[in-house]
Amino acid sequence: MSLTNASPADAAGAAKSASHILATLSADARNEALTVIHAGLTAARDDILAANARDLELAQQAAADGKLSQSLVSRLDLGRKGKFDDMLQGILDVRDLDDPVGKVTLRTRLDDGLDLERVTCPIGVLLIIFEARPEVIANIAALAVKSGNAAILKGGKESTESFVAIARVISAALDKTKVPNGAIQLVTTRDVIPQLLALDSHIDLVIPRGSNDLVRYIKNNTRIPVLGHADGLCAIYLEQSADPAMAADVIVDSKTHYPAACNSLETLLVQESALTTHLPAVAAALAAKGVELRCDAQSKAALARVPNLSVTDATEADYSTEFLNLTLAVKTVPSLAEAITHINTYGSHHTDCILTSSPEQAEQFMAAVDSSGVYWNASTRFADGTRYGFGTEVGISTNKIHSRGPVGLEGLMIYKYKIRGHGQMAASYGAGEGKKQFLHQRLPLE
Amino acid sequence: MSLTNASPADAAGAAKSASHILATLSADARNEALTVIHAGLTAARDDILAANARDLELAQQAAADGKLSQSLVSRLDLGRKGKFDDMLQGILDVRDLDDPVGKVTLRTRLDDGLDLERVTCPIGVLLIIFEARPEVIANIAALAVKSGNAAILKGGKESTESFVAIARVISAALDKTKVPNGAIQLVTTRDVIPQLLALDSHIDLVIPRGSNDLVRYIKNNTRIPVLGHADGLCAIYLEQSADPAMAADVIVDSKTHYPAACNSLETLLVQESALTTHLPAVAAALAAKGVELRCDAQSKAALARVPNLSVTDATEADYSTEFLNLTLAVKTVPSLAEAITHINTYGSHHTDCILTSSPEQAEQFMAAVDSSGVYWNASTRFADGTRYGFGTEVGISTNKIHSRGPVGLEGLMIYKYKIRGHGQMAASYGAGEGKKQFLHQRLPLE
């Protein structure tokens, strides 16, 4: 790893060169590097925590001066119970995942002695831009090495001392392995994000880890593909045939389990015919958890007799708002078609759910809603790489190409086509006398 | 299909709405639409050819005035032998491909009664920008309908009459099918490309079909992902152990089979130790086909005694030039490592080949060269969706994400995650007393 004061262009060039070597290493060589990084970080715990304490002191000062939020200070603290050990365990967890490199996904015999093979390979160079959380550097370095990608890391300035300490250890560790030192680049110089985002000839994918504002800024300022999501405006459609108790459970979980998460509920669409049968109990259950409702006129009227409710009039803007707190927008819709149109128009294509007893309504909803996750009778909070069983999560993508939804290691892979021949020429094939025909025989994937 | 004089934004909005319906149609409904389009175009042959003749007349006039190239006029002509029939057959060929929609690619039991499924689905709205060839409209409309994507088509102005005639037929045909009329939008108004490229909230993927300049312009002027390649700077590395006759065959085919194609050879890298053993015969074979060589000093010296050769001194720029004609840059390299570095530095990541008898050298080359196609002893001209057996070709991509190399229908697909549950809540799972654990049991894909 380079602790670079080099220019962003030099760092990116070095990462590109390293990526070409990294792409040829065996799974054993990559896994061994993760073992060595883990050992290095384990041995250097005291140094790293001392560096983190220096970051923390400055941050607490800044928070006292009102220049930094308390939540950022808390995310910065690597000394909190279990956090350092979790970081270490995460490296071993990534190491022990299936190797994503070199999987053959298509084999075709084009002709005798002319075989086509599609093989997974690393994308190349990742740029990871993240905010203060210092453990992200170890997590991302592990994902990059495991997947055979080089990575350029740019962290928030509040955790610079922690980053540098961790980076020194990773750098020293890589020197004992086959992974080239240049494969992980840490950029600590300030104000270089615009320069990095312009390096589309060397950087193949940007992964922002941080606030919605960070992601939105990055998406709007680069031609490099961005893996992630700016918004998570998830909706649930409550249909009249849903079991009322089940509906209240799922809606409360989706809204209140972790309101600041991108997969939390922000808009509840209620079928008109469920307003009196279902909504009052759901609203009471939400109110018991402290949720404030912003209702359209119809749903507000349906809740007029429910005691102890905090209900205000919804504005049009509420249906486009990711509240990230205990506020929920409620809207009445006549039927499934209008629910689908609302979600496809106002939503962020993240995760949306229908609550119904009707398989037909559920399947229609899941086919027509244009989101990365479409659920039937399950909390939107399940949208998560760990819950999906991916072993790790690179991020959650609302992109329409490459990878969508919770992204595991697969999202850091692309493929190449290999042809192994014996001197065949294209001119030998085609229509006409003496020309050969392609076999196009599908071969087993081994 | 709308023959729209509407604004680009309105056309894109209509396509987006139509895409949500199209995504829910069965394979039968989409295939039936292709049958009806085929029948409509068959019946309207005379009208379409008459419209094409009017385009052609104007184009021939413009060519006579020196305002248009003769090759563009030739590409415009739908009346050329076999061209109309090929266009018609192409629609049926696409119809008869496997349905790419709704393929289940992952199934995981998260818990009893809580199943996760990953299912292929259309990307959404495609923007296809193409130059004069009028048959492209039928080809793209067929690919879009087959893959369940809506499409906005913007063609070159020289073929406007042909486009409008074909579009009228497709529009009338779609009215008899379940595919919404708005699913295929033809934009005939001029100078709207910049406006279309700005509509990233409605358009999910841009596919340019035309010159390198068109592709480069589009890549540089939109945030929407672009599927394609601006350059095809393919290289062959001639290693000392290669069979000399085989080497000459493959190099001549790669260079001369169709020099204007993106998968044609532009740079020949010769191992130093093959300069005298291999290069003279290769050069003579190329010269017999009219190829002009641009050589570095070492390779030029090796060819000093070969008669009737057209050899000039290579400049540095020649190794970054896609000649697209019978010119070939030749460079001497000491060994495999330098060949790989040269290709990864100067190439366009399209298709590159090694000629060798050594499996070790070949595998190392194919692992380390960062291109969509990496070949061993086979012509670069095989890089083509039809030759790969994909049944159709959307384009050739040099992107590092989503799809790479020749792109078939799969490149127009993404996936979504469906969860079918029974009211499960995220809060029920995790560490601690009374919490449930995920099963993460892989299920068969049926």
Automatic annotation (TrEMBL), chains A, B:
The keyword Acetylation does not apply. Catalyzes the NADPH dependent reduction of L-gamma-glutamyl 5-phosphate into L-glutamate 5-semialdehyde and phosphate. The product spontaneously undergoes cyclization to form 1-pyrroline-5-carboxylate. This is glutamate-5-semialdehyde dehydrogenase. One of its GO terms (molecular function) is NADP binding. Residues 10-288 form the Aldehyde dehydrogenase domain. Belongs to the gamma-glutamyl phosphate reductase family. It holds the Pfam family Aldedh. Pathway: Amino-acid biosynthesis; L-proline biosynthesis; L-glutamate 5-semialdehyde from L-glutamate: step 2/2. Keywords: Amino-acid biosynthesis, NADP, Oxidoreductase, Proline biosynthesis. The keyword Membrane does not apply. One of its GO terms (biological process) is amino acid biosynthetic process. It comes from the Eukaryota. It comes from Corynascus novoguineensis. It is an enzyme of class 1 (oxidoreductase). HAMAP family: ProA. It catalyses: L-glutamate 5-semialdehyde + phosphate + NADP(+) = L-glutamyl 5-phosphate + NADPH + H(+). Transmembrane segments: none annotated. Its EC number is 1.2.1.41.
